[in-house]
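seq as requested:
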Amino acid sequence: MTFKDFAKGLAQPKYLINFCEIGDADKDNFPEFYLTYFEESDGLDAKPLKVIVYTNTGVKTLSKSKITGWIPFQEEDQYREERDTNFKLLPKAIRMKAEKILKDAKNGMN
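struct tokens:
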């Protein structure tokens, strides 16, 4: 199985293995895959901490959804979260699991 995401500029992923999981939060007998990584790059801009969720939508390929927490590196910046369109369509149980993974990964970085 191949998981793909794309970084902008001179960035590289730092996979947070302890926060990558396989689960079945919605109890549909098909696992979801939760891939978590921090995107490291030069500069003091906020850096993304991503949880990508791959789910079965009944088609041949898995559906990709994403929640991103933006980790500030300057005092004037605020932490914020973004959810893509697919993430908003996930069952509540899967969204809650991904949000918990993001929160735990963020707290684990402190």
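The chain has one domain: 11-109.
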